[in-house]
Amino acid sequence: MAPERFRGVDLSQVADRARRSLGDDVMILHTRVVRDGGVPMVEVMAENGTTVDRVRERLEAAPFARPLRNADGSPYRIALVGPTGAGKTTTAAKLAVRRALFGAARPGLLTIDTYRVGGMEQLATYAELADVPFEVIYDASEVDGAMKRLSACDVIIIDTPGRSPASSDLTERWRSLLDALTPNEIHLVMPASLRPDLAVDIARSYAPTRAHVGATHVLISKVDEVPRGSGVADLALSLELPTRWITDGQDVPTDLKPGAQRLLRSYGLAADAEPDWMPA
Ligand SMILES: Nc1nc2c(ncn2[C@@H]2O[C@H](COP(=O)(O)OP(=O)(O)OP(=O)(O)O)[C@@H](O)[C@H]2O)c(=O)[nH]1
Ligand SMILES: [Mg+2]
Fold first, then answer.
1. Which of 30, 108, 122, 128 is deepest in the core (most CB within 10 A)?
2. What residues are in contact with ligand 1 under a 6 Å CB criterion?
């Protein structure tokens, strides 16, 4: 599936060669001038268009329905789950405070992570600075009240605790709480540096079960911490979940990018020049 490299004296000759090899729907991904024994040559990376489309289809999440609210008028709910330290809280802040990320829809923040010292305060500060409503929930009995207070929001971002395999009782508790919030989407936040075999195991532990709702999307975090083209897209593809966003740094809210586009690029399956950011 890796793109192929073609070289020639000018672009039309190289494009022609790529077309003959990969078919009429060839996609030219990158073009550059290289020196071959001192002679300038045009080099292109190209891939068959169908292959690119197929990978894109597997990675890309369906666009949001408009308006974003549920049919019963309640806010659309997007939860973030994942291993300890994956970047859930930081990503929740990015999603909630990034202006126009959800178009005209008004965001709200909610956390059920009442275990991690400082996590709540971190979110509360971002919410206050961006004037985004913020709720903390300790128990399922508080869900209705919190949802009522957030009823002016169109979309609610939900932060959850990191899951430690050693504390299964705790995990059971917060997963029941998450069920009670009936999320529309549950994004599994996975650091880009995670070994793919471990990632698959972790993803399995967040899959839907008879008892609990499970991950619907994958959100690869910390893409800035791995070298370019180092299998980040493979990681996303191996989990077989669609993706809306990736994160590539600690800055709130800037370091959040459209997922499929960035992953295709790290695969070498999208041109560098394509825009990095478009609001959803
Ligand atoms: N380099 C880099 N660091 C990130 C990124 N996202 C988050 N971080 C950092 O990772 C650390 C952990 O982030 P958190 O958002 O607290 O992670 P978490 O998943 O909420 O952690 P727990 O609640 O303890 O499970 C912090 O130092 C963040 O600044 C990213 O995209 N790139
Ligand atoms: Mg957290």
1. 108
2. 84-90, 113, 116, 119, 161-162, 221-222, 224-225, 247-250, 255
Amino acid found at 103: G
CA of 88 to the centre of ligand 1 (A): 6
C-alpha torsion sign, points 262, 62, 214, 89: positive
pLDDT at position 196: 82
Say if strands 4-8 and 26-36 run parallel, antiparallel, or are unpaired: unpaired
pTM of the model: 0.86
Classify domain 65-258 by CATH architecture: 3-Layer(aba) Sandwich (3.40)
Ligand 1 center–CA 244 separation, angstroms: 18
State the DSSP string of 251-269. Answer: -TTTSEEEHHHHHHHHTT-
For 101-134, the pLDDT digits (tens) are: 999 999 999 999 988 878 889 999 999 999 999 9
